[in-house]
Each structure stands twice: as structure tokens, then as C-alpha cells.
Amino acid sequence: MNKWMLIGMVFLGAAVLEGSARDRMSIQVREGQLREQPSFLGRVVAGVEYGDRVTVQETRGPWKRVEAREAEGWIHESALTRKRIVLEAGDEDVGPAAARDEIALAGRGFTEDVEREYRNQHQELNFSRVDRMEREGGLMVEEIVRFLREGGLEGGAE
User: Fold this and answer.
1) Which of 56, 127, 135, 157 is deepest in the core (most CB within 10 A)?
2) Counted domains in the chain
3) Total H helices, total E strands in the chain
């Protein structure tokens, strides 16, 4: 193999890797949030909507750093699909694959059934703060991190 063929193969390989790292995907939830860090506790930097196309810039575990609508941020892969979503005038409303809260729970492997079973197995625990957070929503990140630390769940804040 001559030197020029080898150089050409290196550049071709680099182009293929670059193309796969920058996949085009669609948002498959009604509303999604781009975050500053790859974490559900990261500050929200922008919103995306069902059908929006995004370009994947980087992947860290189940999180993708994407570029969308002149914004950039991290979003959980459960909010994305490789399928191109096309909404045409006159079509019936197309519902999202999952609601935002379902995605947040699914990203952690946590469902209503899992919560119910956990509560039944740990009746000695006081879930009043968790219930209040679910009811009231809109908690500050610092409050959530403090809750995780006090409960010995610090790994969940990452």
C-alpha cells in the first residue's frame, strides 16, 4: 500500500467518525430541555419541541450534547429518535412518545410501579418531602441537591 492510499484512508476514517459523532436526530417529546451539563439537575439553557431536528455534537453515556435552534446543550437520549418527524399541514395532531416527567423517570430506570414497590418495602421512610416536590414542582437546584445529600443520595446529583 502506498503512502497516499494510507493518508487517504486516514482522512476517510476521520470523516466517517466525524459524521457519526454529528448525527441528526429528532425530538420525540412534546417539550424538551437543553441543559448546561449532562444531568437532570443541570441549568436549562434552551427549550426544544416535538419534531425539532438537532445535531449531536458529543455523547456521554445516555446524554447527548446537541445543537438546535441556534442553541446548544445536553439532552437525555430518551427524548431523541433517529427517525425524522415530519408534520404536514392538515395532519392530525401527533402526540409525543413520552411526557417529560416520564422521560426523567425512565432515564433513571424509575417508574410508578418501581416507586410503589420501593415505598411498600421501605415504609419506615418519610416520603413527605418527595411528595411535596412532586406536587409543587419548580424547586431550586440547590434545594434538590441538598435533599440528595441529606438522604445520602449524592451520586444522583451528577
Assistant:
1) 56
2) 1
3) 5, 7
Look up residue 62 and give its three cell numbers. 445516555
**For the domain that residue 44 is a member of, what is the CATH number?**
2.30.30.40
| Beta strand residue intervals within the chain, DSSP E | 24-27, 31-35, 44-49, 53-60, 63-68, 71-76, 80-81
Does residue 122 form part of some domain? no
Helix (H) or strand (E) holding 133: helix 128-136
Return the SS3 of 150. Answer: helix
Between helices 128-136 and 141-150, what is the axis angle to 10°? 160
Q: Which structural domain range is residue 85 located in?
A: 21-102
> pLDDT (tens digit, 0 to 9) for every residue of the chain, 158 residues total?
566 665 666 555 544 444 444 689 999 888 889 999 999 888 999 999 988 999 999 999 999 999 998 899 999 998 999 888 876 655 554 555 555 565 555 555 566 777 778 788 878 877 787 777 667 665 566 777 787 888 777 654 44
Provide the whole-model pTM. 0.48
